[in-house]
Amino acid sequence: MAQSILITGASSEIGRGIALELASGGASIALHCNQNLQAITELQPLLTARGCASHVMRYDLTHPDQAQSMIDEVIGVFGHLDVLINVVGPFHYHDITEMTPDEWQEAIALNLHTCFNVTYHAQPYLCESRGHIVNFAFAGVENIKAWPLSAAYCAAKAGIAILTKTWAAALAPKGVRVNAICPGLVEEGAVTEAERKRMAEQIPLGRPVRPQEIAATVKWLVTESPASMIGSLIAVSGAWEY
Ligand SMILES: NC(=O)c1ccc[n+]([C@@H]2O[C@H](COP(=O)([O-])OP(=O)(O)OC[C@H]3O[C@@H](n4cnc5c(N)ncnc54)[C@H](OP(=O)(O)O)[C@@H]3O)[C@@H](O)[C@H]2O)c1
């Protein structure tokens, strides 16, 4: 049976790269976005050209009922789910001393609740298929340290790391493998030469991570990695840590 894959946040550059990388071998890919329907609609012909069926969906995943509707839609269209890739996680840059409770809650909802909401509703189908869940944190997430300008984002991503390990342990006996990718600084969009140089100076490798490198790691994880690779936080960062 061909693989059925759901990518949340497929409208992001990393999500797009993952879709293109996984679009082979007769896979079917459900592409989720929140606002940017154009980004995932434009992706569809590229997937079709690679022999991949796709389906586009727009949901605000901070709401559990919308996460449920999205999973229902994927099952309605593809009939099963083998791989869930929780890419959603917009960076939130905000000084902790100026942040309001509403801003805090919004950042945590976007970066932590979205992942829980989707996984909660997807679990039964992934247990049926003995599938994969791939979450997204960041390189260095396991370090306890101060992040005064991005505390909510980092606290939420630390939560993702804990959820990843917890789901990994809970679902491994049911044949579901849960891991997280921890990107470093990723070169996205129209980065100027000056910006690229500034990023590169912070990275031991000497250049930012390319979205295709993240995508290739996801592909390896869900196709070739050893069956015992479960509950891992996999850095793809050129040795940079946040
Ligand atoms: N880029 C980096 O350097 C970097 C570094 C470390 C970790 N990461 C992690 O890697 C992942 C991808 O990063 P990225 O920079 O490519 O992401 P991004 O460009 O910030 O994209 C965020 C995604 O979240 C979606 N989204 C926003 N609000 C949402 C909501 N309420 N409900 C559902 N979806 C919502 C957006 O959809 P719409 O655009 O359609 O609204 C978009 O697809 C994230 O988890 C990020 O934290 C990235």
Protein described:
This is Dehydrogenase. It comes from Candidatus Methylumidiphilus alinenensis. Belongs to the short-chain dehydrogenases/reductases (SDR) family. InterPro entries: NAD(P)-bd_dom_sf, SDR, SDR_fam. This protein is an alpha/beta fold and 242 residues long. The protein has a single domain (4-236), classed as NAD(P)-binding Rossmann-like Domain (Rossmann fold, 3-Layer(aba) Sandwich). The chain has 7 helices and 7 strands. It has helices at 13-22, 37-49, 64-78, 101-129, 151-171, 193-201, 211-223, and strands spanning 4-8, 28-33, 53-58, 83-86, 132-136, 177-183, 233-236. The protein has a 7-stranded parallel beta sheet with strand order 3-2-1-4-5-6-7, sandwiched between helices. Helix 1 packs across helix 7 and helix 4 (101-129) runs parallel beside helix 5. The radius of gyration is 17 Å and the shape is globular. The termini are far apart. The model has no long low-confidence stretch (mean pLDDT 96). The structure holds NADP nicotinamide-adenine-dinucleotide phosphate (NAP). NADP nicotinamide-adenine-dinucleotide phosphate binds next to helix 1 and helix 4. NADP nicotinamide-adenine-dinucleotide phosphate (NAP) is lined by residues 9, 11-15, 33-36, 60-62, 87-91, 110, 114, 136, 138, 183, 185-186, 188.
